[in-house]
Amino acid sequence: MLNEFLWVVSPYLVLASFIVGHIFRYRYDQFSVTAKSSEFIEKKQLMVGSMLFHIGIIFVVGGHFVGLIIPESWTNAVGISEHMYHLVAVLVGSVFGIMAFIGMFLLTFRRLGNRNVRRLSSATDIIVNLTLVLTLILGILSTLLTDHMHPGFNYRENIAVWFRQIFLLHPDMNLMTNVPLLFKLHIISAFIIFALFPYTRLVHAWSVPLGYVKRSYIVTRI
Ligand code: HEM
Question: Is residue 207 domain-resident?
Answer without folding.
Answer: no
